[in-house]
Fold each of these.
Amino acid sequence: MKYFLVVLGLVCCLWYSFFIDEPKQTVAVTVTVQAGDTLEEIIYDLKETYDDQRDWREICAQAEKDNAFSRFILPGQHIIFNMEPSGK
């Protein structure tokens, strides 16, 4: 019984290790807002440049949290976006 529990524990550990996500590689990109820019346009350009597969709203929410700003941006404002390039 003791060996069975040890083997079961090892199997569970191995099983769990297959499902652990690898840490995502991010690239911090600083953007200076220009007159007429919108968050959506900036993020779509960055998504295309860095081939980030996330939805633009997810990137926007993360940028708002990281930079402590609201939905309104002003020309000259510096915003840091953490992009997750795909590994292609």
Amino acid sequence: MENVRSAVLSREQQNNSLFTILPWEDSSREEALELLGKFGLEDRSEMKAEIIPHGDKKILDVAMSVAMRPKLLILDEPTSGVATDNKHEIMQRLNDYFQTTDSAVLFIEHDMELIAEYAERVLAMDQGQKLTEGTPEEVLENADVKRRIRGEE
């Protein structure tokens, strides 16, 4: 909770006082707890971040970023380093949250299964060059994508 709360206070430029309890501190705590709830982390709100599972740490990172109320959020491989069994759970939590906000989200992802299931639009690149863009189905079936990215003939 303190990690997300710190982001809320930073957004409000109210994180300069370490020793004075000010009126906005109660509202920052409420907002932090609300965000943790939206990301399914409410049961871990009083735990130290260093002891929560790796997948939950990834979600916590996103919750902290969201607390800043960005117009555009860029997530570079949000499930990297996470056990295969947990990737879909993490992506579903992210997807559920971002369906309720007007923030634009750009995922950089190499996992074709996640792209197929969670992306609305895809831009495929190879060595800095755009190959194609479109729906996940269009891009994943593209001959250049199959050959140059997926290694299929």
